[in-house]
Batch of 4 targets.
Target 1
Amino acid sequence: MKITFIDLFAGCGGLSEGFIQAGFDPLAHVEMDKAACFSLRTRMAFHWLIRHKKASFYTDYLSGKITRDELYSKIPKHIINSVINEEISDKTIENIFTQIDAILENRQLDLIVGGPPCQAYSLIGRGSTKKNGGMQDDKRNWLFKYYIEFLIKYKPKYFVFENVLGLLSARDKKGKKYFDTILKEISKNGYSAVAEIVSADLYGVPQNRKRVIIIGTRGDLTPIKLHLYPKKLSARISDLFADLPEIQAGDKTKDTIKAKKGCKGLYDLNLKDDFPITLHKSRPHNERDLEIYRIAVEKWNNGHLRLNYNDLPAKLQTHRNKTAFTDRFKVVAGDLLASHTVVAHISKDGHYYIHPDIKQNRSITPREAARLQTFPDNYCFESADGKECLSSAFKQIGNAVPVYLAKQIAESIRKDIKKSED
């Protein structure tokens, strides 16, 4: 019997996808972003079609032969409707409960996963906020309370709460750590919890990304813990990109492509298959930025040096702030095994994610960013209106949990659950 779960603050589904790949059964997703909800619906459609040996419909969709509505028409309505497009708030939570109640049909829920939007706990967010007190007034600081409301309502056997490293040090106006408050509220409502700092690159993800993972167990059950085992990174970043067509900044490639046979690392991470590949498209860049990109790549290639903004020729310097974020132009180093962290700011511009191949001279594409986040190539990142939108895809990818890391977390939990229930 599959372990059931719901995903709160689900984003486009990175955490959920890892649990699905590990054999868990998703009953509902709750997410406020409309585009991300369409990504979730399309992903749920994908899994349903694969289970029912109807993958050709998904291929037709990726290839543009059928529309999104036509794809969804092939899927039972309850699968599509399991994605709830709502912001979790005082005004909406009862309605969300009602929708989830209808989905559960009095079944016991095994697991809740998710992580409230993390920008308010982010060290970068706090550091860049001029107002005294940083981001203490940001309402997102308190979204964890809604997560706990779901624990109280559904009393799942277990939960997984994911967030940024800054959660451990962020404080409220009274000086109390939010992390301590969260653990106190969890305990008060009948759950034991353990927290771990996880660095994704230690577990086979080609990205330096640290996160806090809280694993919770209902008080009447044997507590479970997180047991992750180090995995070696098996390919350089350039190798993970090498099978994709070489393109230039602003290139208008076809909506879907067929890539060459890739390196072993792509298959180890379960990224590559025979489905058409989407969103391998580059945003355009002006000549000034392209010249900066060339300089940044050359500095890395000729001495493993990162570009400091103040070292650029004066004619290329247009930013007034020359004391903070002086590394705002950064190469995704092709000869390393792991990139720097992919974050949602990649939706604003590509300066912090310059492609390592100087011949292509551009920032990375959504598909390349998705590979760094270990999303399978068949993962479709949707827009709200059904039209292709690179910035929307970048935002969803940057906000996500790496799929391969999520899968290992899920596999660890499944093993511990089996031991505790045997």
Target 2
Amino acid sequence: MCRNIKTLFNFDPPATNDEVHDAALQFVRKLSGTTRPSKHNQHAFDHAVKAIAASARELLDSLETSQHPRNREEVAAKAKAKSALRFA
């Protein structure tokens, strides 16, 4: 899995459409093996990003949990601490 794609479910506030789009973009980049498609492939690339973002938004909106929403700042702080230990 691409390390740049982050969990978007069960956060307070919920994931924005921009965050979902960015995750879809990263996914398409990973699958295609390119960050910038050729002009010939741009339409297919953009279409894939839109389709995956729509599917991801639908998934996030339909998921249910009994857990309390996670705090973004706490999750970010834990990730920074883990990264500091890993690369120290």
Target 3
Amino acid sequence: MTRKLAFEAIENFRDFGDYGAGERHIRKGVLYRAAHQAEATDADLEALGALGLSLIVDLRRPNERTRSPSRRWNGFSAELIENGEGDEHDDPWHRFIAASDLSAKAFTDYMVDYYREAPFVGRHVDLYSRYFQRLGHTQGATLIHCAAGKDRTGILAALTHHIAGVHEDDIFADFLLTNDPLRFERRVPMMRQAILDMTGREATDEALITALGVEQQYLETAFAAIHAAHPSLDHYLETVLGVDSKTRAAIEARILA
């Protein structure tokens, strides 16, 4: 199936449902993931409104939301989950760019370190927890997104798939769908210019594609960090994110067929 939904100016938008989950499967059209919607065109907003979204989880920091505020469609009434924690002027990604040698290895190393810490960051724990508490009680579709729709969003989508019983191979395959050559072609010149404006230095195509994409080792690193601190992913989900048996049953009833 084609998971990617075509929007004019919203990137990395796709359905992460319709995967097999043991003897069941995730329904199509109930789970979406994407990058931010600040650049959405009017046609994009009309298409978003037609998806029947009743829950949107914005995983971005406050400064990201201020810099790129989400556009909404007419009649918007979806429940919104976001987090207000964080220094408005502190951006770890920008600090990294300023100090980095802008090599592909530097971007990879940064992301591996990021994924090692991400499951335990207080903001993420809060957002992920509230998402799972609400997911089983929504009447419409759910959209999770961050800035690029690949890292914070990727971890949360993977955890959702785990709860549903999706095979690990499919979890990683879905994660890697972010590596869209057309998206890279469109975004590399824009990112090169942004970094040049910020640092006065120019990054190579290899480094920029590394920054825009994901690698399987990133998600493996997040899972390994969880396993290092907990007996299992399920233990982490229950003790850190509050996904107890009742919450899990509600989620399964909502998204599985």
Target 4
Amino acid sequence: MKKHINQIVLTALAAAVCAMAVIYTYNIVTVLKSEEAHRMELWAKATAVLSSPSADESATMEVLLDIIQQNNTIPVVLTDSADSILMSRNIVESATDSAAIAKALPGVFAAMKAEGRKIDIDLGNGTMQHLYYSDSHIVRRLRYSPLVQLMPAALFLLFAYVVFSRARRSEQEKVWIGLAKETAHQLGTPISALMGWTDLLRSGGVSTTMVADEMEHDVGRLRSIADRFSKIGSKPELTPAPIDDTLCRTVDYLKMRVSRHVHIALSIDPDARHMTVSHNAELIGWVIENVCKNAVDAIDSDTDGLIGVHLSAAQHGWVTIDISDNGRGMKHSMARRVFDAGFTTKRRGWGLGLTLAHRIIRQYHKGRIFVQSSEPGVGTTVRICLRAPHADAT
């Protein structure tokens, strides 16, 4: 739920950043279009006056005044030869208050003089005037445009980094907690069995050979568990071997340990028999166990459960293992999250089994594992895809 909220917040922030950039750019473009329209009107008016044989001095003066008055963006100050201000225009953007303009004028004029952007106007008879100017308001806005657009983007990236870092840290904590619980769970069964055999030996009256065989079996189980967990933190060795042998051993082990009301059926397509696949038998067996245990948990205790494990050969040398159950099923939104660390629908679950299965298949075996289909009240099918030695990487 929290992850979903973070995704919504990040999406909203990204949309806000994009909207700000679009609005800011649109405003600048609108001002530029308006300026261009005014200039084109002046161009047309000047062309008409110059082309008219009856043009008089008053018409020419009108055009010149229009040119001066149409400057609505460039700050200008006209002074006499002693730099006494005669006229100013566009000192404060969009300001019409004379008091505000008068207050800002000295500072703006000083900045113009410091910039040295001056045009000398010779009026004749030794009379000079000076025209000081600076960048137009639209040029200033364009100058700060990258900063205005990059700052929200930078803040968004910083927020996203913090959110994802916290999410990753939270997921790692869930993985470690779940891994500890999974270890205790895995070790619990063979340790309990060994303790039971020890009590029987002390009580006497039992076949020591039979007890020794069973204890050896449980010790082997402990060794297998230790081997599995040791491979999680390092890259396991993949060995080419028939995948159906690994599948048969795992299913046979599960049949002896699942509830009596659940039946596990294994089927293998003829073209998939003895098909060699590079894999780690211990880890693949662990994946099958985790998926099947989740399937058992999804089956109500008052119904006859059926878990089907089907091995088939797909195209380009791939093999698929479909694990289907007739359990409660789940909605599509839930099916997308079953491999997330910490996600579980069980009251006392810790949501790590399928996460480990996903890691083993995707990272160690370069395969795929996903919910092929699921329907509430009908059941679920989880598909595992593994590549044969010469499988097409696509």
